[in-house]
Amino acid sequence: MIVGKEERCPAFIFLIRILELNFALESKTVMPDLGVNIDHVATVRQARLTYEPDPVWAAVLAELGGADGITLHLREDRRHIQDHDLYTMKKTVQVKLNLEMAAEQEMTAIALEVRPDQVSLVPEKREELTTEGGLDVIANLERVRSCVVQLQEVGIEVSLFIDPDLDQIAAAKNSGVHAVELHTGRYADAVSDDEQQREFEILHRASEFTIEQGLKLHMGHGLTYRNVSKIASIPNVSELNIGHSIISRAVLVGMEQAVREMKALVTL
User: Fold this and answer.
1) Residue 3: pLDDT band by 50, 70, 90 thresholds?
2) Among the options 40, 63, 73, 199, which is catalytic?
3) Domain 31-267: what homologous superfamily?
4) pLDDT in tens, 214-242
5) Rg of the chain over CA atoms, in angstroms?
6) 107: Cβ–Cβ under 8 A, 6 or more apart, which residues?
7) Catalytic site residue 218?
């Protein structure tokens, strides 16, 4: 007799879940770390130019929720994260501290003083709402390489936030970085299943090429509770950086719970 779903005993369901988890573990060589971007906590604070909510407190709560890293973007226009946030976070955060910044000498000097665990070089435009597109490493190779060398000399790991383009990945390798973060924005913004699948396939091929180049594979931008699982399933993704979706969820359920929920999605 075939047993319907409603008649399956809890032990049977538990066994199936264990088998599914084992299959997932065997099919991947690494499980991605979760980096929580806390920029938009500072966005709310800066809307009133006041002292709350404090992104440092948010980072502490994210750690308690299981975050493997804290990401913050110190922009040249200081629209959300301020210098004092970065300096305080360096003294407070116990997990990996990842500083996003432009490949400019002012930012490089700050990074050399603070010494975060990792710097992620990103493009910046003052008129953009958020980072739009990846860094053009090919067009800015010498400027990027100069920044990379200075950071690596003091032991800071460097990643480049780039589009899932094979030529850009090759240029990133040539710049001397240890990792790239592939821009998942077009996948996240896809309006149909077919479009999303096409963008996923582009990311998957770019991921394979990244590993072939001997680079660590990070991914991020626009990832949400609804779309992250497929990206997390790509083999050898070592880090996912997610901000807006987690902060939005945290408004309703609290930071710790929001991070726990996302952590469960990226590690199963």
Assistant:
1) very low
2) 73
3) Aldolase class I (3.20.20.70)
4) 999 999 999 999 999 999 999 999 999 99
5) 19
6) 74, 76, 101
7) no
Q: Enter the pTM of the model.
A: 0.85
Considering only CA atoms, which of 223, 219, 214, 208 is closest in space to residue 120?
219
Joined together, the tokens standing for residue 171 give 């240029």
Q: Which long-range contacts (CB under 8 A, 24 or more apart) does 29-33 make?
A: 29/235, 29/236, 30/235, 30/236, 30/237, 30/238, 31/266, 31/267, 32/219, 32/232, 32/237, 32/238, 32/239, 32/240, 32/266, 32/267, 33/68, 33/69, 33/96, 33/238, 33/239, 33/240
Is 221 a known active-site residue?
A: yes
Six-digit token pair at 217?
A: 């594979």
The neighbouring-strand residues paired with 70 are 36, 97
Angle between helices 83-92 and 55-64 (to 10 degrees): 30
Determine which one of 40, 63, 80, 100 is catalytic.
100
Which two tokens mark 109?
A: 């000097």
Of 63, 218, 221, 239, which is the active-site residue? 221
Cα–Cα distances in angstroms (integers) from residue 153 to residues 57, 111, 192, 256, in the given order: 31, 12, 45, 36
